[in-house]
Every structure is written in structure tokens, then in C-alpha cells.
Design a protein that fits this description.
Length: 373
């Protein structure tokens, strides 16, 4: 019986749980059963450090409790209510079934191309779904992962009828194979290296910064000069008050101009910064692409997902695989890669033959970076 079954059994057979003052449930829950099973106190031991308080990553004063995998167990001074053998047997079974059952196996899985693969019927993004297979005794067997169209609800007048679930593994590996083919092309490598080495042209923006700085210096000088003039006004002058008011008005105007210019300047600096950041993030992606075959297989699912998301915008698939088993129809990249003479945009029909077509890379001269795509 699993933890759920045990909790149900206890509740249905008149067992009552002693309620602690912190007011937990009066009935048994699966969680409670697991806590009891895992607590060595019932076989006469005392465990120390089963849970440890640790600082929350990146936070200054936040702590959370982390379950420890290893902790020392001491002989207790109390009587055991079950034997150590039974406790260990229960643990063994927990490790084999229950614990494994909850195991993060699936949590580590990421739907790599979720939202990027599009439904061949309605064109909407397809998302990841899971079919969890269990053995007869209810324990975890394995997960099957799919992309499916969730456009089932009728909106904008129609709903999608594409019911096929596409194995994630098939799409993922077809895409990985395609990227790998592209990056292995010597022309690609050449073009990428050139791209990385190109300096970004910031001359225009730097000129703008220079002239704004010059304007700011002039305004500040005028302000100082005017301030001195105001200070040296003769209080016995019959127009003193009038002159003072006039100058004060001009001074206020200068302060406003200075503030405006400073604002403008910081906006331009920000623009420059963004151009540099775009260049860096694009370079990073290109660097990764150059070593795709070496680096990619070592990525975690989360890293693969992030990487694929940064280079691919959209993937179209065939409603049914073609005769030679080809599932991909079209890939739209976020970065300029031209393939088979197809420049202009970043969209490629995946060739019907098994990717023997030579591909070339044309560098886009647009300033569009990855970040603003
Ligand atoms: Zn659809």
C-alpha cells in the first residue's frame, strides 16, 4: 500500500490522529504518513540535522529549511515502537517506490521547444504535455513527452482539430541535427568569426554624446557666471529688485536646461549600453554555435531550452512525417543565417533530402540585435 492508501485506510478504520497545538489536520494525510515512515524516532533513534536551515540564495536575510540527504542518527533514550529491522525495511521500500515516485526525474525535464513548435493545422504554438505511465502497482514507470496543440477552445470562430501528439524527442533531435548541420559548414564558421570580430559602429552616438557634453559645459559656465553677477549686484542700485528678479528668472531657465540636457545625455548613454549588450549577447550565441556539437550535449534541459529559444523563433512541422520520415518543414531563426541562397529573412524550408544542401551564411547589416527581436 502506498502512502495515500495507508492514510485512507487509517481514516476509514476509525484511527484518530492526536492533534498537536499547531492545529494540523485531524485526519491522516499521505504527507503525514511519509513523515512518520521516514522518522527514525519510531525505532528508538534520534536523528540530528534531518533538516537544516539555509540561507536563501541571493537574499540577505531569508532562510529556508532544506531536507538533508545525510544526517547522523543517535541511539535514543526512549522505547522504540517498531524494530529497527522493520524501520529499515520500510525505508528500503520507500526508496524503491515512494521516494523514487516523487523523484524529480520529471521535474528536470523541460519541454525544449514548447511555444516554438507550431501546430501544422492552425499555426498556434504547441506546448509540452506528458503522459505518465505507471506500472500495475501504481509506481512510476516512465514519462512520455509530447508537443500538442492546445487550441481546442473555440475562439476567433473556429477551433483546431489537430489532435496528434508529437513526440518531443523526435522534433528535438531533428532540430538539433539541423542546427548541427548548419554550424558544421565551413562557410558558416568563417562568417561567424568575421561577425564576432566586427566592431560595432558607435561613431554616430559618440558624436551625439560629445555635443551634449559640450552643451552641458556651456550651460554650467553660463550658470556660474550669472550666479556671480547676481552676487555682485549693488543693493543700493535703484533697479536692484528688478535686476535681481530678471537674473533669477534667467538662472531658473538655465537650471531647467541643464536638467533637460542631463536627461538627454543619460538616455543616449543607455542607448549605447544597449547596443553593446546586444552585441555581447549575440556574440555569446555565435560562440556557442561555433562549438555547438561539443557544448550542447553537455547542457541541462533548462540550458538547452534557453539556448534554442535564443536562436529559434518558430518551427513549422509536417502534419504527418514525410515518406523519408521528415518531421520539420520550416525553421525561422532569430539570428541572421542564410541558407541555400535564402537571405533577406531568417526562415528556411528544411530541404526534403537529408540535409545535403550546402548552406551559406550572409551577414545581415541591420542593427537589429537579439534583444529587440
Ligand atoms: Zn492547432
Amino acid at each position: 500500500m502506498g502512502a495515500n492508501g495507508i492514510a485512507k485506510y487509517l481514516n476509514q478504520h476509525g484511527y484518530e490522529k492526536k492533534q498537536r497545538q499547531n492545529g494540523t489536520l485531524s485526519t491522516f494525510s499521505a504527507h503525514f504518513v511519509k513523515l512518520v515512515l521516514d522518522n527514525p524516532v519510531y525505532c528508538g533513534k534520534l536523528a540530528y540535522g534531518r533538516r537544516k536551515t539555509e540561507k536563501v540564495n541571493g537574499a540577505r536575510n531569508e532562510y529556508h529549511i532544506v531536507k538533508q540527504d545525510e544526517y547522523p542518527i543517535y541511539e535514543g533514550v526512549h522505547d522504540a515502537i517498531i524494530s529497527e529491522e522493520d524501520w529499515l525495511l520500510a525505508q528500503k521500500k520507500r526508496k524503491k517506490t515512494g521516494i523514487k515516485n516523487e523523484k524529480i526525474y520529471s521535474l528536470e525535464h523541460q519541454h525544449l521547444l514548447s511555444g516554438i513548435v507550431c501546430c501544422p493545422e492552425c499555426g498556434q504554438p504547441m506546448y509540452g504535455s506528458v503522459n505518465r505511465k505507471r506500472k500495475k502497482d501504481g509506481t512510476f514507470y516512465r514519462d512520455y513527452w509530447y508537443y500538442a496543440c492546445k487550441h481546442r477552445l473555440e475562439f476567433d470562430g473556429h477551433k483546431c482539430t489537430y489532435k496528434k501528439q508529437i513526440h518531443q524527442e523526435k522534433v528535438n533531435s531533428a532540430v538539433e541535427e539541423f542546427v548541427s548541420k548548419i554550424v558544421k559548414n565551413p562557410k558558416f564558421e568563417e562568417a561567424i568569426k568575421e561577425k564576432i570580430n566586427t566592431r560595432i559602429d558607435t561613431a554616430e552616438i559618440e558624436t551625439e554624446i560629445d555635443s551634449l557634453n559640450k552643451k552641458l559645459r556651456q550651460l554650467n559656465m553660463a550658470k556660474e557666471k550669472l550666479g556671480k553677477t547676481i552676487d555682485s549686484l549693488d543693493v543700493f542700485d535703484e533697479f536692484y529688485n528688478k535686476k535681481y528678479d530678471d537674473m533669477q528668472l534667467r538662472l531658473n531657465g538655465l537650471y531647467r536646461d541643464i536638467a533637460d540636457t542631463e536627461k538627454e545625455l543619460s538616455a543616449v548613454y543607455e542607448r549605447l549600453e544597449n547596443i553593446r549588450k546586444d552585441k555581447i549577447s549575440q556574440e555569446k550565441v555565435y560562440q556557442f554555435l561555433l562549438f555547438f556539437d561539443i557544448i550542447y550535449p553537455k547542457f541541462t534541459d533548462a540550458e538547452k531550452k534557453e539556448f534554442l529559444g535564443s536562436i529559434i523563433e518558430r518551427i513549422e512541422i509536417n502534419p504527418e512525417p514525410t515518406e523519408n520520415g521528415q518531421i520539420l518543414k520550416k525553421i525561422k531563426f532569430r539570428i541572421p543565417i542564410s541558407y541555400d541562397g535564402n537571405d533577406g529573412n531568417n526562415e528556411f524550408s528544411v530541404p526534403n533530402e537529408k540535409m545535403t544542401v550546402e548552406c551559406a551564411v550572409l551577414l545581415s547589416r541591420t542593427k537589429k540585435g537579439l534583444a529587440n527581436e
